[in-house]
Amino acid sequence: PRGLMAAYEETIAAVATPPGEGAIALVRLSGPDSPKILSRIFRSSSASLHPRHATFGRIMDGDETIDQVLVTTYRAPASFTGEDMAEISCHGGILLAAKILELVLRHGARAAEPGEFSQRAFFNGKIDLTRAEAIMDIIRARTPLALRAASQQLEGRLGNEILGLRGDVFDIVVHLEAWIDFPEEGIDPATGRQLTEKITTAMARTSRLLDTADDGRILREGVRVVIAGLPNAGKSSLLNRLLGMERAIVNEQPGTTRDTIEETACLRGILFRLTDTAGLRETLDPV
Please, which residues have CB within 8 angstroms of residue 264's CB and are 6 or more apart in sequence? Predict the structure, then answer.
């Protein structure tokens, strides 16, 4: 579409590190104007910027030095997005990173939409959808098992499995279409058995992939567990024991817990979202 193509002719920029204080923050640019924008704001004693090499210099706003930084450039198509890219490593801090981003935007870049760097990598053929999803899963991983599963997906385990399955199905379709187009040729019984076996195998592989969907969702989102029961049954004590800390008030008086208390715990590599609730009982208390 014309609108989509026009968007990808623009250069985008964003702060790639979480907001807050830290030693380093990263401002990332991607698009055809990345080198031109960088030339307007970056000054260095080096004669030129070499792709994939970090270069020390200063970010300048006119004659004012904003920060001393390291800049790394990438030339298309040898970059994450497949476009010309630049990464500015500056000192950490909300104000400084925001000021450098504002300077980059002022010189011609557009603020990137959420996930737009990965989107461009996908449309430029650098990653497939499974790898794009894996990037977000890695960022959001809360347990070692979730991180390992996301890393394997980023390496292409799921994508390669789907490509192999697609190839098998394509071969089956080619044989069937040839038989439909040339019915007078007939189909050898041995070939027919082979096609049946291939179809059965493809269905089994598809079923195995579908069976892993629930496991993947659990690794990504965790398991929601509600602790419910009568007053003084030990619900809050169980929550504290699972968390390894005194999160909920425990008292012999019934009705100590008046509202839900939610916390997360990693048990055997699985994230559990635990919710402690008030005791189940008949009461005249309006609360």
Answer: 142, 222, 271, 272, 273, 274
Structure tokens at 5: 């193509």
pLDDT digits (tens, 9 = 90+) for 121-145: 999 989 888 888 888 888 877 778 7
pLDDT confidence of residue 117:
93
Instruction: Using CB atoms within 10 Å of the CB of residue 156, give its burial: 0 to 12 exposed, 13 to 18 middle, 19+ buried.
Output: middle
- Sequence letter at residue 51: P
pLDDT at 172: 85
Burial of 84: CB neighbours in 10 Å, binned 0-12, 13-18, 19+: buried
Give the helix ranges, DSSP H, for the chain. Answer: 2-7, 34-41, 94-106, 116-123, 129-140, 144-154, 157-181, 189-221, 235-243
Measure the CA–CA gap between 71 and 85, rounded to whole angstroms: 11
Do 53 and 72 touch, CB atoms closer than 8 A?
Answer: yes
Query: What is the C-alpha to C-alpha distance for residues 79 and 51, in angstroms, rounded to an integer?
Result: 10
Q: In this structure, are residues 224 and 276 in contact, taking their beta carbons and an 8 Å threshold? A: no
Which residues are CB-contacts of 131 (< 8 A; sequence separation ≥ 6)?
Answer: 153, 154, 156, 159
Largest CA distance in the chain: 86
Cβ distance 26 to 16 under 8 Å?
A: yes
The pLDDT assigned to 234 comes to 81
Q: In this predicted model, what pLDDT tens digit does every residue of 218-229 receive, in sequence order?
A: 888 788 889 888
Q: What is the pLDDT of residues 7-21, one digit of tens each?
A: 668 999 999 998 888
